[in-house]
Specification:
The structure is a homodimer of 104-residue chains. A two-stranded antiparallel sheet of chain A has the order 1-2. Chain A contains four helices and two strands; from the N terminus they run αααββα. By secondary structure, the first copy, chain A, is mainly α. The relative contact order of chain A is 0.13. Chain A has helices at 5-17, 20-27, 31-44, 66-96; strands at residues 50-53, 61-64. The two termini of chain A are 28 Å apart. The interface between A and B is medium-sized, with 31 and 31 residues.
Chain lengths: 104, 104
C-alpha cells in the first residue's frame, strides 16, 4: 500500500468529521469504499490509524489515533518538503513554458 | 498540461530511440497516442521539445531539441530533489508501518 493524496485526505476528513461515513461523503466516495480504505490503512501500520467508537448518543463514530495524527502530519510534511525542494526547478520549467498551455 | 512520469518517459524514449513510433512502442502506447502527446508537449513550450526529421535513408525520425533535453533534465532534477527532501519523513513513516503491508 502507498499513502497518496486520496488516503491522506480521507484520514484528514475522518479526523475533521469524526465519522467514516461523513468523511466518505466529503470525498465523494461510497461508505463502503471509505470503510475499505480505512481498514486497509489500519492493516498497514503497527498501530491502527483510525479507531471506531460504537454506540453513544451520536450512534458511534470514528477518530484518529495518535499514530493516525502522526502519519497524517508526516504525509503533509512530505508534501511541504517536496514542494519546497522542487520550487527552483519548477520556476525554471515554467519560464520555458508558454503562458497559457493547452489542456492535457 | 502537466509534465508527469509518462510524458517525461516518452521524452526520454524519443531521445534514446530517435523515433516517436519506437518511443511509443517502448511505452506500450499506440503511435497515434505518442504522436498526440509529443504534439501537446511541443505546444506547451515556447520552443519545441521534439523535432521531427523527414526523409533520409532511415525514413525520418525525431530528436530532442536543446529545450527538450533541458526540460527532461529539469524533470529528473525535480524527482531527485523531491526524493531527497522527503527521505527522512519517509523513514519515519516506514518505521510506523508493518513489514509486509497488504496490497492497495
Amino acid at each position: 500500500m502507498r499513502i497518496g493524496p486520496g488516503k491522506a485526505a480521507l484520514l484528514e476528513a475522518i479526523g475533521d468529521t469524526g465519522s467514516i461515513a461523513a468523511a466518505g461523503r466529503r470525498m465523494g466516495m461510497s461508505y463502503r469504499r471509505a470503510w475499505v480504505l480505512a481498514k486497509t490503512m489500519n492493516a498497514c501500520f503497527k498501530e491502527p490509524l483510525i479507531e471506531t467508537v460504537k454506540g453513544g448518543s451520536g450512534g458511534g463514530g470514528a477518530l484518529l489515533t495518535g499514530t493516525g495524527r502522526e502519519v497524517l502530519a508526516l504525509y503533509r510534511a512530505m508534501e511541504d518538503h517536496a514542494a519546497t525542494a522542487v520550487m527552483s526547478d519548477m520556476d525554471k520549467l515554467r519560464a520555458l513554458m508558454v503562458d497559457e498551455p493547452p489542456e492535457d
